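Side project, low priority. Logging it here so it doesn't get lost.
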Amino acid sequence: MPIATVNPATGQTIRTFEELTDGELETRLQRAQSAFQVVRRLPLEIRTRALLQAADILDADEDRLADLLTLEMGKIRTQALAEVRKSAYGLRYYAEHAAQFLAARHLERPADVNADQAYAVHQPLGPVLAVMPWNFPLWQVIRFAAPALAAGNVGLLKHASNVPQSALYLEELFSRTDLPDGAFQTLLISAGRVEKVLRDDRVVAVTLTGSEPAGRSVAAIAGDEVKKSVLELGGSDPFLVQPSADLDRAADIAVIARTSNNGQACINAKRFIVHTAVYDDFLAKLTERFTALVVGDPADEGTDIGPLALESGRTDVDELVQDAVRAGARVITGGAIPEGAGWFYPPTIIADVPESARLYREEVFGPVAIVLRAENLDEAIDIANDVPFGLGAAAWTRDADEQRELIERLDSASVTLNDYTISFPELPFGGVKRSGYGRELSEEGMHEFTNLKSVRVRA
C-alpha cells in the first residue's frame, strides 16, 4: 500500500510520502551503526534524561498529536489524547526504573564459582528494527523505544504505511533530546523491504507487533539470520461472565473492552462467554448499551465510535460477520456496512455463533462482539481456550474458588478479574500460542534486547 495519510472518516488522501531510496536507506543504516557506538557508552543518567525530555515534549505537543492520531487512523480524540499521555508516562516509567532494571546481579557467594567476584550484567545489543502497527501509532512504538534506548540500544522504526506523519514525529521527538543523531530513525519503506533491513548485519534484532502472517514472516527471517525477535500478534480475548458478577458493571466495562480504539486493539475483548443463568440478562444489558453508542466524526466530543482505520479492514470485518450469518449466527444489532463516506462499521452484537463460522475462532478487528453461552465454569474455560491465540483474558466473578480456577486454567499471557485487559508499563505484556512470544513492558521488556553477560573475577 502507498505511504500516505488518508482520513478514514472521509476516505480523502491528505498527504503522500516517497519511499526512501536504496541510497537513503543505506545512509540511515550507517547512521544507526555509528549512533550505537555513542549511545552504548553514554552514562545511564544521560539516556534516562533523554527519556524525560521526550516525555516533556509529548506533554507540550499533546493537542496537535491527538489531532494527528485522529486524522491518520480515526481514533476518537479523547482516546488519542489518552494515548499521548500514556506514552509520556511510559517514558517516565523507564527513566525512573532503568537503573534498577539494569543493575548488576551479584552472586552472594562468589567462592562457589571459584571467584572473588561474580555477577551478571545487562548490556545493549545494537540497532533494533521495530515493525509497528497503526492502531496505537505512538504507544506501540514508545513501549519498545523507551526501554531499548534506556538500555543503550538504538532504534529503527518501520511503521505502518497509513501513519507516516506519526512515524516521522517519533523520529523528531527523540532528535529533540540529548540522544545523538541517529539514535532513533524512521524508515519510510514498504513492507516488502523489511527483509532486506532485517538481513543487514548491522541490525541485530527485531520486534514486531501486528498480524500473525506478518509475525510468521519476520520470525522466519530472524530465525534464518539467528537474530533475536519479539512478536506480539493477534488476539481473540475472552470475557467470561459468571452468575456472581455485577452484571451492570460487567456490561458497562464490556462496552469499553470491545469498542475502545473503535474495536481495533489486540487486547480488545472479542468473545463474551456468559453463564446460561445470566446469559439473557447480560445480553439485554449489552445490547442496550451498544445501541446507545454514537458513531460519527472521531474529532467530535460526542462520538463513541469512529471509523475503522483502513477500508480493507472494514471489508475483513464485514466478511467475518456475513460468514457467521450464513453459518446460522444471529445478529442482535448492527452487522451491515452503512452508506456514506468513510470506513465506518456499526457496533455489532452476534449471538449463536456456530463453531463452523470463522468468527468463532478468528480475530475480528472492529466493534463486533460475539456472545456465547456456557452451561458452567468448565465449559466457559474450554470455550475461552478453544482458539489459537493467548494474549489476554478477562473474567467476572466474585467467587474466590472460581477466580483461582480462572487464573490457573485460562491459556493466556494475562488474566484480569472484574475489569478489562489493558497494558501497563508496570506489568509484562505479550502472548502465548499464536499471539507471539517475548515480552514488552516492565523489567522483562527492557531485558529482551540486552545481552545478559556473566562475569567472574579472580583477584
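Brief comment: The chain has a mean pLDDT of 98.
Revisit when time allows.
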